[in-house]
Specification:
The structure is a single chain. By secondary structure, this protein is α/β, with parallel strands linked by helices. The chain folds into two domains: about 180 residues, Phosphoglycerate kinase, N-terminal domain (Rossmann fold, 3-Layer(aba) Sandwich), CATH 3.40.50; about 200 residues, Rossmann fold (3-Layer(aba) Sandwich), CATH 3.40.50.1260. About 35% of the residues lie in helices and about 15% in strands. The chain is built from 15 helices and 15 strands. The strands form three sheets. The chain has a six-stranded parallel β-sheet with strand order 3-4-2-1-5-6. Strands 9-8-7-13-14-15 form a six-stranded parallel β-sheet, sandwiched between helices. It is elongated and about 70 Å long. The two termini are about 30 Å apart.
Length: about 425
């Protein structure tokens, strides 16, 4: 078993709407284009500093190697804005992948062109090539048809294993797919669809959503969608400040979206009408600023002038922990405080550990900062599923159609994807 994978991640599963799993595809001796998510952080000396996204895709790559496919990997890295920028080259990624697989990975010097065509054309069974950063070409984010057709011309089979980009209608995630005759989902994509689909169906209750982050404006659509499904919502992070201010609390220097107070009040009203319990902080950890050397815990009714709320307090942690303990289905997205700073990480880490302690619940962590938090707490392997895509998981939970998943649905079948994508 590859590091970063699990036995469950390597089991075949029936996917909704007839989306084929990579295990079902005829890949032997064929050129298989695999859209992966290798958008990983690099150190100053241009080494991969966190390889979890690379490791996550190893089961799909190894499966294709074992079956004698000719593998063409493709990803973006950073935001080069359609220009060739050496600092965004995938060269360090290719080197790390070769180390993990203990086999050669050939890096094409461009995403499309004569060099890419030669590298992909020269592949033999079981060999691996990685195209250079897709976003070096403006046609990737622009979903340009000619760029999409060129990518498709390299392949006989298309596999999407990049759930984190599935909500983007880009050339490599959506535009090229109709031009490849055989298509399906890799192990990462399949597992994401499986677990997130469960949250949209009949679940064991109580169903709790824990939602944090900086802005109400970033999450209000998700919160509204969750109102239709959950029994309770626990809110943390800076966005909780806006809800508290909407209730009349004075929060001194705390970050508050003043123009979203009416939206917050409306949400609380709708939750009350639907019988959904909304947990808000009763105490917070405050300090004069993010880099303050001292902090204190105060009631949300007594935030001192000149301070800002930067984490949920211990009484709130205990209330949220009890809600997590009692729940049987849990979705968590967004930190409870500025968890990048150790002084303000306690609330977020506590939620992660509470999820891990509840072994009776289906617990899904919605990517992004929440995924980093459970990793920081050392409990990522103790929750049911940690998503690889923050934005994609949020759109999925809303019941929206994700272009990268839509493209995999056989067109001869009904395309009713609400509730799965």
């Amino acid at each position: 078993m590859w590091p970063g994978s699990s036995p469950e991640s390597c089991e075949a599963m029936a996917l909704p709407h007839g989306i084929p799993h990579v295990q079902e595809l005829p890949v032997e001796g064929k050129r298989v284009f695999v859209r992966v998510d290798f958008n990983v952080p690099l150190s100053k000396d241009r080494k991969v500093s966190d390889d979890q996204r690379i490791r996550a895709t190893l089961p799909t790559i190894q499966h294709l190697v074992d079956r004698g496919a000719r593998i063409i990997l493709a990803s973006h890295l950073g935001r080069p804005d359609g220009q060739v920028k050496p600092e965004y080259s995938l060269e360090p990624v290719a080197a790390r992948l070769a180390e993990l697989l203990d086999r050669d990975v050939v890096l094409a010097d461009e995403p499309v062109g004569d060099g890419a065509r030669k590298v992909t054309g020269d592949l033999r069974d079981g060999q691996i090539a990685l195209l250079e950063n897709l976003r070096f070409h403006p046609g990737e984010e622009g979903n340009d048809e000619q760029f999409a057709r060129t990518l498709a011309s390299y392949a006989d089979v298309y596999v999407n294993d990049a759930f984190g980009t599935a909500h983007r209608a880009h050339a490599s995630t959506a535009g090229m797919v109709p031009f490849v005759p055989i298509k399906g989902a890799g192990f990462v994509m399949a597992k994401e669809i499986e677990f997130l689909t469960k949250l949209l169906g009949e679940v064991e209750r109580p169903y709790l959503a824990v939602v944090g982050g900086a802005k109400v404006s970033d999450k209000i659509e998700v919160l509204d969608a969750l109102l239709e499904r959950v029994n309770a919502i626990a809110i943390g992070g800076a966005m909780a400040n806006t809800f508290l201010k909407a209730q009349g609390k004075e929060l001194a220097k705390s970050k508050v979206e003043e123009d979203k107070l009416a939206i917050a009040r409306n949400f609380l009203r709708k939750a009350s009408e639907r019988g959904v319990t909304v947990y808000l902080p009763t105490d917070v950890v405050v300090a004069p600023g993010l880099d303050a050397e001292e902090s204190s815990t105060v009631s949300v009714d007594q935030v001192p002038a000149g301070t800002m709320a930067l984490d949920i307090g211990p009484a709130t942690v205990e209330a949220y922990r009890k809600a997590v303990k009692d729940a049987r289905t849990i979705f968590w997205n967004g930190p409870m405080g500025v968890f990048e700073k150790p002084r303000f990480a306690a609330g977020t880490v506590a939620i992660g550990r509470a999820l891990a302690d509840n072994r009776l619940a289906l617990s899904v962590v919605g990517g992004g900062d929440s995924a980093a938090a459970v990793a920081q707490a050392g409990v990522a392997d103790k929750v049911s599923h940690v998503s690889t895509g923050g934005g994609a998981s949020l759109e999925f939970i809303q019941g929206l159609k994700l272009p990268g998943i839509e493209a995999l649905i056989p067109k001869s079948r009904p395309s009713e994807t609400r509730g799965t994508t």
